[in-house]
Structures are given as C-alpha cells and as structure tokens.
Amino acid sequence: MDMxxxxxxxxLAACYIKQMRERVEKLKRVKEQAITxxxxxxxxxxxxxMIGLRLPVVELRDxxxxxxxxxxxxxxxxxxxxxxxxxxxxxxxxxxxxxxxTVGDKVFHTIHAQVRILRVGVETSRVWERLQELIS
Length: 136
Hints:
Layout: H1 6-43, H2 47-51, E1 57-62, E2 66-74, H3 81-90, E3 93-103, E4 106-115, H4 124-135
Antiparallel strand pairs: 1-2, 2-4, 3-4
C-alpha cells in the first residue's frame, strides 16, 4: 500500500472540506425552501392539504433490534398515549424513550422501543395494525 505524501493528504482534506461546504449550502437552501413553503401554506390555511397529510398518521420504522413509532395527530384528535405504549409492550417491545412536540395544529409523538427478546422479535405489521385501530 502506498503512503500518501503530506501534500496529497492536504489536497484530499481540502477536497473533502469543499464537498462538505457545498453539501451544507445545498441543505440550507432546502431548509429555507421548506420553511418558506410551510409559512406560505399556514398563511393560506392549507398546510395539511399542501403536505397531503390526513390526520392521524402512524409511521413505523423497523431497525431490527429496535423500532420507532411516529404518530401525527391534530390538536383536536386525542388518543391515550399509554394505550400506544401498552400495544408496544404487548407485542414484545420495551419503550426506551417517548416524546412529543406541537407544531402549529399538529402533535408529533415519537416513541423508541427495543425488542425484548431478539430471537422472537416484534411483528411490526401487527403493531401497525393495532395502532391504526387505536387511532381511528
């Protein structure tokens, strides 16, 4: 394996820094566009129509040994948070963390859970179905 000279290492580092700056600038533009779109949609009162979001929404991500549940609901749609945690527990997951935030007229709940027994796992499709029944 050839060793890179100090000059080559500096050139690689400079190239990497340049790429990262370009990526940061691109992400800033995307963020600004998203903020502008959100402000425009809120001012016209059509935020949920523009996003195409019919509330409530359940999103489940399976990471093998852990799962993430994201629930998005309106301020007027209440469900019992403990019932969601109960469903996860009954299906073999242990809740590690849970949080929520309110943005405009939407409430975002995020729950992170770990599989209790790795050999058995968690049947995420069943969890999703039960959560759909719970929120509807």
